[in-house]
Amino acid sequence: MNDFYSIVLEGMDEAIYRDIAAALEATVKDIKPVNKTSQTSFNDAEMVRLLQTADAYGKSTIYCTFEFAATMIPDAAWASDQMKQERWNNGYFSTYKGHNVIILPQSFEDETNAKKVIDPSKAYIIPTGAEKPIKVAFEGAQQVKDFENRDWSTEIQTYQKVGVASYLVNPGICVYENTSLTKNNG
Does the global pTM surpass 0.85? Predict the structure, then answer.
């Protein structure tokens, strides 16, 4: 029975994760034009510009999917053998010009694997220690009930009061969009 509970609770986490992804996507629309860029591929100079903007409000961190991180290749002029080895081992740079790169876990909207949950075209550059753009609030404990039906099947119900909201209170948050990456898989 514990396996069933684990699957149900994992589904609850997935539902919250989808709400966070939607709220993050909605927040991008309210960011000042100077704090975002849209490019057809990765452009090192534009990323540096956004990092400098975000760093004015505190050392920034880059949040993106693995797919986006794999495209973040700096100008070849300063790529060392150590950097090439790190990219070979990880598939991306864990730090980009002194800024941590945090990989957002990707998933698919359903079992067809046709559409991704997180838009891989966007990287969010958020000053460290600053107000985070997404807030998640839980009220009360998560409740789980199971019922045995007349046909001996088991029905599991769960309830958790959750709220997800977006706040754009930090003027240093920046967004880089690489339009060559899409939510569609394939």
Answer: no
